[in-house]
Amino acid sequence: MQSKLARFKHFVIDLKKYNTIIFDCDGVILNSNFQKIEAYRNAAITYGATKSQAEDLVTYHVKLTGISRNIKFKYFLKEIMGEEILDSSMNSLVGNLNKEVVSLLKGCEIASGMKKLKFETRKSTWMVASGGDQEELRFLFKKKKITSYFDGGIYGSPSSKHEIIESKLKNKNFLPTLFLGDSLYDIQTAQKYNLDFIFIYGWTDLKNWKKICDDKGLTYIEKIEDLI
Known about the structure:
This protein has helices spanning 2-10, 33-47, 51-63, 69-80, 87-105, 114-120, 134-143, 161-168, 184-192, 209-216, and strands spanning 20-23, 125-133, 154-157, 177-181, 196-200, 219-221. By secondary structure, the chain is α/β, with parallel strands linked by helices. The protein has a six-stranded parallel beta sheet with strand order 3-2-1-4-5-6.
């Protein structure tokens, strides 16, 4: 019933009116949210955290899904490990996470319907705004042969989604824009910049996504292919 309702709600949206379509990556383009959880857990343990401390990081990561790993690791060092935030510690954690992510995400599922949606919205510019590491994203997209879809660029950490969008707002052809996301931060970002938004729930790790979407009157669909 959820999928039928979501599709019905979507039919009022004219995709062809958008100059830009922004995609979050994890949970939208790639079925990678739960692999990312495992990557954060492993990165913390490799750093020297106990299993309990690693789980505390995972909980914080899920709470802040879509937000830069730098923010999460600063919290981890200061609040969970009780350590000073040093460049060496941050570099170690980010390096551990990068290795874990690349290893775990090489085989993860890509959203179906991308090619057809690109054709249907061929006059729109596609871009990625993710909380993931920018170079890591570009590497993975190249490996998965989906870089060419995103003619507007693939962007991520260390820039925040807010910084990425603010830089694009300077382009007079950026609006109107549609944002496709799966996290609370994605919703908040779209609302901050008054962008149209569709929630993709099929791979989300946001437990109360439906109540949030219903309360805010947001359109939601299970997966990208439901757009077409």
